[in-house]
Design a protein that fits this description.
alpha/beta; two-stranded antiparallel ribbon; 37% helix; 12% strand
Length: 358
């Protein structure tokens, strides 16, 4: 397996040596803050100053990288100019202290390659790439898609999310994709933990990266070397500790940290994952804020259930640290209160099955 990330755990300091596999470690699919602006699409403008501060905060709390322009970053709701500005902001914010893995998702190979080329031009360390996003592509078409993206020259992490794309990057298909120069990793989000070993058997040169927060411990124990994660937006230092414990084989300590968090982590695999993670940020004193349509606010029972899960996670971490989380400020909002800055569609019933693409 490829070595673990070389980025330092010392906040604010660059990696001492180049990382031959920069797409491993704890890479955060970053949430994107907005500011109300009447002239912006949906009257919401990406707040790039807040976003830069958030990326820096994640790195200073030990995360190995940030991932702008995933679906948690609402890339599909951005204009082309906004999408590029977000990627550039992430690169400038973290400098060489961590990896920047830009989402280069697109309906076809030409669009995805275009975004990968811009990411390379803007100084990114790699790209995260779904198969064609609006077409149920066959194996030859998927291989062509990744071949074209890889021509941009950046390390490529393929992203398997068969729930959203309806295209399953099976271990056998990944064997073909792994033969493409520059494809170095796969983010596995099928929800089937058996895939980890199967991928390692079929495509041993690929780094396997956990994609679902509520399966991360299981994936790491089975040999995954990275975590492309959502909830470090809320608990970065604590998630890094979980990753380090799991990679060190300290199962008892890892389980004690992980199990009280899983109820919250399951929201990363639900339709409302964007709203849920932004809500978590709000509850710990960060700024999550609103989302653009089609995501609408969580209310009523969904909001109450989410808040209960988040409160359980926060209380567990505060007990383990013998005091309030260092980034928590003020009392937690009442879960019965609807917050306009938590938004997203609620057409699917929440459950443990993955339903999104970061």
């Amino acid at each position: 397996m490829p070595p673990d990330t070389a980025h330092t755990r010392n906040p604010g300091h660059p990696a001492p040596t180049p990382n031959p596999h920069p797409l491993t470690g704890v890479i955060v699919a970053t949430a994107l803050p907005y500011t109300e602006t009447p002239t912006a699409p949906a009257a919401l403008r990406p707040d790039l100053d807040r976003y830069a501060e958030h990326c820096r905060w994640l790195v200073d709390n030990g995360c190995d990288g940030v991932g702008p322009n995933g679906s948690l970053g609402e890339y599909s709701s951005l204009t082309d100019a906004e999408r590029r500005a977000v990627a550039r902001t992430a690169v400038e914010a973290v400098g060489r202290d961590a990896a920047v893995v830009v989402g280069a998702h697109g309906p076809g190979a030409h669009q995805a390659r275009h975004w990968a080329e811009l990411a390379a031009e803007d100084g990114a360390d790699g790209v995260l790439v779904l198969p064609p996003t609006m077409y149920r592509a066959g194996t030859a078409e998927v291989v062509h898609h990744f071949t074209e993206v890889a021509k941009a020259g950046l390390p490529v992490m393929a992203y398997n999310n068969p729930i959203d794309t309806k295209v399953d990057l099976t271990p056998e298909m990944l064997r073909e994709i792994a033969a493409i120069d520059n494809v170095v990793a796969v983010k596995e989000f099928s929800g089937d933990i058996r895939r980890i070993l199967h991928i390692q058997e079929q495509a041993p040169r690929l780094a396997v990266v956990a994609g679902a927060d509520d399966l991360v411990l299981e994936a790491l124990l089975m040999g995954a070397t990275g975590w492309f994660a959502g909830f470090p937006n809320v608990f970065p230092a604590e998630c890094v500790r979980l990753y380090d414990l799991a990679r060190a084989g300290k199962l008892t300590e890892a389980r004690a940290l992980y199990e009280p968090l899983v109820a919250a982590f399951r929201w990363d695999s639900r339709t409302e994952f964007v709203q849920a993670i932004k809500r978590g940020m709000d509850l710990v004193g960060r700024y999550g804020g609103p989302s653009r349509p089609p995501r609408g606010p969580l209310t009523g029972e969904s909001l109450a259930r989410l808040d209960a899960d988040l409160r359980q996670a926060i209380a567990s971490l505060e007990r383990s640290e013998a005091g309030p989380l260092p980034h928590t400020s003020g009392p937690l909002p009442n879960p019965s209160e609807s917050m306009p800055n938590t938004s997203g569609p609620t057409s699917r019933t929440p459950g443990p099955i993955p339903t999104k693409a970061d």
